[in-house]
Amino acid sequence: MVDERLASIVRNCRNTTAGHCGGYLEPTATGQPGAYVSTVLLSTGSVNLEQFPGYPFEEDLDQGMAEIVSYDRAERNDAYIGEINMMQASSFSGANGAIWGYDLAVDSRIGKTYPVGRIEGIPIYSLIPLRDATRQLFGVAERPHFPPQKGAMVVCAEKDRTSAVSDGNMWIWCALGFAIAEDRGRSACLFMEDTGLLSLPEDADQTVRQRLDDRLNRIAYAAYLCGENQGATYKKIYIGWKASHVPKNHVGCALTCAPYVTLPSGAFTNISPDTEILELTTDDWLTRVGLSRAEEPDYALKTLTGPNIPVV
């Protein structure tokens, strides 16, 4: 049986374009009453200061330019959200929101993975399937699918961290926890973003993994406490991280965000009625709309992701 709340969102989370997602509340949005789709992504980027004229610098001005470039690269290095006006919001997906990869065009691993932990009895799962589903919606820079329209005003739950100049012993990381409300008509789902730096050498893979897996437990517990604050009960928490080594004389950026978007007509090609998208897997959806799977790009950075996904 189709969930009527989700069916209403699918019918209304639309915009006037054929090939681009739009930002929630943008003029291109056509649906009522303000329906949207939440997506999640984790990305990193870096820039080599040595390529800037005048290096080494006598002041911080050019490092500031490098910080801008590294952030811009993080926007394009995974699921493509380049050239948008990112409007920072708080961190909830409410009654008018659906989740890409979880509610519609569902990643085939959802419901088929073991929990990677528990907090106060709430099972914790890897965020990686939801992150990968976002890449299938937006595509990547070299193979765009339905990315946000260039220059779009896109509301995002967002947090980023930019590094100082690396001495070669630096990792930059981003993480995201996503708590699913038990009663989504009454309570909102919660995004919990986090970013940071680790002073470790390039070959410290195991230490990086251990520290960030440990960090996930604290993020999940913080999400639980936020739910307790609001009287919200969560039935699942999805959580994940990405970390990249920042080479010497580079500036790095880690970006975790959850864009709130509307969908173009092209995202419903060969899907009728529109609510059939609620029953399709991500791969089935790609086949229907005539696209092939977008793989994670080569960052040209040593990059790790976690946690691991034990599949049933």
General description of the model:
This protein has about 300 residues and is α+β, with helices and mostly antiparallel strands. The protein has a single domain (about 5-295), classed as Pyruvoyl-Dependent Histidine Decarboxylase, Chain B (3-Layer(bba) Sandwich). The chain has five helices and 16 strands. It has helices at about 5-10, 60-75, 130-140, 205-230, 280-290, and strands at about 20-25, 35-40, 40-50, 85-90, 90-95, 95-100, 115-120, 120-125, 140, 145, 155-160, 170-180, 190-200, 235-245, 250-260, 305. The strands form three sheets. Strands 1, 2, 3, 4, 6, 11 and 15 form a seven-stranded mixed beta sheet that branches. The two termini are about 25 Å apart.
Index terms:
single chain, 312 residues, alpha+beta, Pyruvoyl-Dependent Histidine Decarboxylase, Chain B, seven-stranded mixed β-sheet, 16 strands, 22% helix, 30% strand, globular
Oligomeric description of these chains: single chain
Strand content: 25-35%
Helix content: 10-25%
| The top level CATH class name | Alpha Beta
Number of strand segments: 16
Shape: globular
> Would you identify the CATH architecture?
3-Layer(bba) Sandwich
Instruction: Look at the helices and sheets and give the structural class.
Output: alpha+beta
What number is the mean pLDDT?
93
Radius of gyration using CA atoms only: 19 Å
Q: SSE order in H/E notation?
A: HEEEHEEEEEHEEEEEHEEHE
